[in-house]
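Researcher: We plan to redesign the surface later, but first we want a full-length starting point. Tokens attached.
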């Protein structure tokens, strides 16, 4: 079993970043046995709030490279 997992991991790591992200998301979703509808609704509201803040100019975005440097620098 471990060798199969290692082989899959090696293959997955050769995928482009977007495909790895999609695969990781799908794997994480597969671990959720139940869906909390209230949590899903709250996340949808939060996402919409953040989109409005960005579109209105109330919040400014930063490139991932800069955010990552700031996070790792702490």
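Model: Full-length starting sequence:
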């Amino acid at each position: 079993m471990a060798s199969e997992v290692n082989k899959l991991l090696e293959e997955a790591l050769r995928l482009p970043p977007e495909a790895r992200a999609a695969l990781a998301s799908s794997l994480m979703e597969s671990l959720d046995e139940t869906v909390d509808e209230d949590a899903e609704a709250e996340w949808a509201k939060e996402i919409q709030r953040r989109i409005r803040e960005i579109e209105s100019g109330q919040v400014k975005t930063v490139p991932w490279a800069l955010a990552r440097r700031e996070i790792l620098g702490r």
